[in-house]
Structure prediction request, 860 residues.
Amino acid sequence: MRRHVLFGVAAALLLASSAHAAPAVRGGDAPVKAIVASPQWKAARDALKAGHDRFVSDIVTITEIPAPPFGEEKRGAAVRAMFDQIGLSDVRVDAVGNVIGLRKGTGADNGLVVIAAHLDTVFPAGTDVKVKREGTVLSAPGIGDDSRGVAALIAIARALDAGKIRTKRDILFIANVGEEGQGDLRGVRHFFGNDPLAKRTSAFFSVDGTDASRIVNGGVGSKRYRAIFRGPGGHSYGAFGLVNPMVAMAKSVAALYEISPPKDPKTTYSASVTGGGTSVNSIPNAVFMEFDMRSESAAELAALDGKFRAIVEQAVADENAARSTRAGTISVELKVIGERPAGQTPDDSSLVRNTQAAIRAVGLSPTLEASSTDSNIPMSIGVPAVTIGSGGIGARAHALDEHIDVAEPLSSQGLIAALTSLVAAAGLAR
Amino acid sequence: MRRHVLFGVAAALLLASSAHAAPAVRGGDAPVKAIVASPQWKAARDALKAGHDRFVSDIVTITEIPAPPFGEEKRGAAVRAMFDQIGLSDVRVDAVGNVIGLRKGTGADNGLVVIAAHLDTVFPAGTDVKVKREGTVLSAPGIGDDSRGVAALIAIARALDAGKIRTKRDILFIANVGEEGQGDLRGVRHFFGNDPLAKRTSAFFSVDGTDASRIVNGGVGSKRYRAIFRGPGGHSYGAFGLVNPMVAMAKSVAALYEISPPKDPKTTYSASVTGGGTSVNSIPNAVFMEFDMRSESAAELAALDGKFRAIVEQAVADENAARSTRAGTISVELKVIGERPAGQTPDDSSLVRNTQAAIRAVGLSPTLEASSTDSNIPMSIGVPAVTIGSGGIGARAHALDEHIDVAEPLSSQGLIAALTSLVAAAGLAR
Prediction:
């Protein structure tokens, strides 16, 4: 379910005044207004606007270094050099290829805020990634998802320095691997599972995609299987009567589609890809199907997963009971090909409220949505996380004709909102 | 069902004596004994034995000319030259590629006997078809199925001339295309559907495979579909609730496998090959399955076909009723990818009885079997037909390590039995 929460002027005023009246409600317009009133923020904002051409040039540089799934090394090396060049400290590439750089805070707070963007694209090695430019429109595979996001990290770090902004908490910049598809969020998963800094993380931003008004604070969890049904096979005529793995698979799909999952929290499934068999005159030795399950709720996802396993096992048992097993039985292998934990950053959390206020501060109307992004990982372990856009307009993500429009003021608005959200989360030191 | 009818000496004697006592029973040992007692037959038999090396050389020549499915032209051209060289008349290649040559009879009977062997192999273009020889064992893809059969036609035609055998009926030699798999018997189907000589055909032999004791007089019919289920597709999460073509297919397979076909006449089915879908996070636009149905009975095959169509249509309707069709409905295309009519040449027909007697005359024990061969076509329109072996031993047909053993006397025995059966069907003119 996509939840679009549109705030009008009246609602914004109401929120601002209620925040003032009731300090128990954390974050929101009042603290963000204090940030945007500061001379440091104004200097940073001006730097983002003034540096826009350089930002666009970085987008092109990053886009034109191929970063296919499980092949992000080359782009990562270039981003590492950029992290060094802009003066981040402790710059490193971790065991899975995440590029990490630190911007120290004042130490007034031991917390740490992560801002990440993903290096990988969905496009295989060999894809032409040369950027074509017509006016403010730049076209190339991966340019909006997520090359612009990675370039935004660089632009924001430069602007923080230009504005001499000091934060109470450390800020960790991560250009991470493995967000897309079978990458299965492995970069951010590795960070939170292994990095010593993960424990100190008090807020997480993923800058992914363009739309600056969109906040993803619902993490749709998913579990994906390839179910491979195997049997003895045989001649379609001579061996008629033997068990057939395609029947076990068919009965599984038919029974799975009797499940009525809840609408809220939204929970879904799909029998998506199938294949197998050798020739029309042979009982197949093996057939497979890929099955996708998703939910906004970890509990509902687990319940659906349990039903999936039970149904498949039952269908296999039924087929072994229905036909002859004299040449062998049907078995099934359940191979997990994707697993993203569900999670949620509450609508009334300070992270969400500050981010909404930061978006409003640049004149846009924030929406709250649920999706499946790198933020799923921190959300699932209770770390407040949101996925935000880097600004401008993007279209045709995951398609070869992917393109972005970097026309101002929309392009810089996203960068400014992201910087503001980041500073609000990290705490502006006076 | 494979029916193995083994005749012992006592049974053979009984049949011989009953044929003598009751002339209403046509064919059998008595007329065959008259043929094998003739000096012409003896001369032909001796010619087959004496020409065995030449026969083996022809097998190698034919085998080493690739004849993949739907690519028999080159082998056909070579066989056409052989038909010319051995003195057949009216040699021609018909519209689909069958190579046809006539050996005129005396005209005492207007009937015509066809003896055919198929040019095509199951092996794709590019397969190494070089023959390897070790002693009497020759190995190459297609060598037994059916290069040896084609060479047998040449050897038999030569032997008929060597023995100065004159027959009452014309004999038509056909090296036909399209027996295997998706070829779907198209060569013989074309002959019986289009050739002016088809109407005069009173008996049909297909020389296919090696085993000289095997007579196929039951034609297992088959009908094969590729069922393509289509729908609107969509995002597995965003478009959850839309109809899914994989569910219609799954329900079809599950319902089809509830059918209990008769054991006699043997009737079978198989869901054999499947495929479709684009990615694990997409509801598929299209999936397909290939379904094979066979029966010894044309009526049972037609009944099964009717059930298949009804079940598939119902499954599609059920899916369109079960989920949303707002983005489009599920439809199914049923593409016939194979159709072989069922048929039978009666066990007590003169063709079967003469062929059994001819096999016994070389010292082998004939069996009667049901299979799916080129003979299905004439059987299905009431033309007496049998499929017989060309002799010797064959193994691993349809596999790359296919091989035959041409050791004597087994190799020539098959040729002699085939020649004897042919002369019995065509009538020896004195």
User: Anything to note?
Assistant: The first helix of chain A runs from residue 9 to 21.
